[in-house]
UniProtKB/TrEMBL annotation:
The keyword Transmembrane helix is annotated on this UniProt entry: no
SUPFAM superfamilies (alphabetical): Cytochrome P450
Pfam families to which the protein is assigned, alphabetical: p450
Protein's name according to its UniProt entry: Geraniol 10-hydroxylase
Keyword set includes Heme: yes
Protein family (similarity comment): Belongs to the cytochrome P450 family.
Entry keyword set: Heme, Iron, Metal-binding, Monooxygenase, Oxidoreductase
InterPro entries reported for this sequence: Cyt_P450 (IPR001128), Cyt_P450_CS (IPR017972), Cyt_P450_E_grp-I (IPR002401), Cyt_P450_sf (IPR036396)
PANTHER family in the record: CYTOCHROME P450 FAMILY PROTEIN, EXPRESSED, CYTOCHROME P450, FAMILY 76, SUBFAMILY C, POLYPEPTIDE 5-RELATED
Length: 383
């Protein structure tokens, strides 16, 4: 979806996302699935807590997000936290986002396109091919079931899409469905888990912010109690922590590339028709002209402020803005608060041996998604 020009297929896919997948009603109806996945995440942390072992936070968050998406789409479990399937899937998705974020010589010298000098297209085709194979198989199985039984008892996204295809309320075919799944996994899993990893890293490096987050959770939810999505509104400090994480570590630092449809003037510059336009959200988040002490992690700056991440305040647009704003925003936000709030409210956390807040490696690995170059390993401690 992200690479399609404005066209009927694009509009149809957006319509499906906005009206059938990410509505408040749908998300409220399947929040029990997320609750179950959070319990699994906490059980995994508990196991490691007993063993005194560190957790790869990004990987654990990725598995949780992946499992949640997989369940909502296909009504089956994909992976537990130590499974090879989850790891393989993460490699595929990271492969896609890394390759998509690399500057491609062929964009500047179209004559090279066929030669694919950096091998980007070859590797992308391999990653996409593998994912499509898995989805194709799941769609086949479901279509067979529907043929045998007339309908199925699943009320998941796959059923919703097959119904739309059958009743032709929006024009889509099987190929669209398959590629929409790639979009949802490629756009949703890495971004969400990477943000969670950065939020945990920043909190562990800023003990005062961590203790304020914990105090708010304790007073509002009760120490160790599970968090519900309906609690989020009562947790302003946690919300500020997530916004501050988005400001410093936007998962999609350059949004998705745009193309000027006509010659346009912006701030005195001429943007010629067909020029590719990249919006540097990462730089906006660290602009001294906008933010005081831009490099410090200070969630307090958002307390009592109206700034949100829904594309209305251009100083903070981690999900983009306008017609192309991330359609998964409502789900991403719920997942993030739930994972972060639960991990903080259920455990104390400490760094692995030898790592402190002063020597923590904050380097970023640049791709379409801005991941932490060195994974955060943290040890859960019983509270
Ligand atoms: C922290 C989590 C996430 C962040 C920061 C994020 C950010 C973004 C951004 C910046 C864009 C491009 C918007 C633009 O260029 O204006 C985008 C597009 C998109 N996102 Fe997300 N996203 C997240 C989670 C999700 C989730 C959970 C899903 C779905 C399961 C999702 C699905 C998509 C899709 C399908 C697009 C392409 C939309 C289009 O081109 O019309 N995202 N996202």
């Amino acid at each position: 979806m992200g690479w399609l020009p404005l066209s009927t297929p694009r509009t149809n896919l957006r319509k499906i996302c906005n009206s059938h997948i990410f509505t408040t009603q749908k998300l409220d109806a399947n929040q029990h699935l997320r609750r179950k996945r959070i319990q699994q995440l906490l059980a995994y942390a508990q196991e490691n807590c007993r063993a005194g072992k560190a957790i790869d936070i990004g990987q654990a968050a990725f598995n949780t997000t992946l499992n949640f998406l997989w369940n909502t789409i296909f009504s089956v479990d994909l992976a537990d936290h130590s499974s090879d399937t989850a790891r393989e899937f993460r490699d595929m998705i990271s492969g896609i986002t890394e390759e998509a974020g690399k500057p491609n010589l062929s964009d500047n010298f179209p004559v090279l396109k066929k030669l694919d000098p950096q091998g980007i297209r070859r590797r992308m085709t391999k990653h996409f091919g593998k994912m499509l194979e898995v989805f194709d198989c799941l769609i086949d199985q479901r279509m067979k079931l529907r043929q045998e039984h007339g309908s199925t008892e699943y009320k998941d996204i796959l059923d919703t899409l097959l119904n739309i295809m059958d009743d032709k309320s929006v024009e889509i075919d099987r190929n669209y469905i398959n590629h929409l799944f790639i979009d949802l996994f490629a756009a949703g899993a890495d971004t969400t888990s990477s943000t969670l990893e950065w939020a945990m890293t920043e909190l562990l490096c800023n003990p005062e912010a961590l203790s304020k987050t914990r105090m708010e959770l304790e007073q509002t939810i009760g120490k160790g109690n599970p968090i519900d999505e309906s609690d989020i509104i009562r947790l302003p400090y946690l919300q500020a922590v997530v916004k501050e994480t988005f400001r410093l570590h936007p998962a999609a630092p350059l949004l998705l590339p745009r193309k000027a449809s006509t010659n346009t003037q912006v701030a005195g510059y001429t943007i010629p028709k067909d020029a590719q336009v990249l919006v540097n959200v990462w730089a906006i988040g660290r602009d001294e002209g906008i933010w005081e002490n831009p490099c410090s992690f200070m969630p307090e700056r958002f307390l009592g402020s109206d700034i949100d991440v829904k594309g209305r305040n251009f100083e903070l647009i981690p999900f983009g803005a306008g017609r192309r704003i991330c359609p998964g925003l409502p789900l991403a936000i719920r997942m993030l608060y739930l994972m972060l709030g639960s991990l903080i409210n259920s455990f104390d956390w400490k760094f692995e041996d030898g790592i402190t807040q002063h020597n923590m490696d904050m380097e970023e690995k640049f791709g379409l998604t801005l991941n932490k170059a060195q994974p955060l390993h943290a040890i859960p401690i019983a509270i």
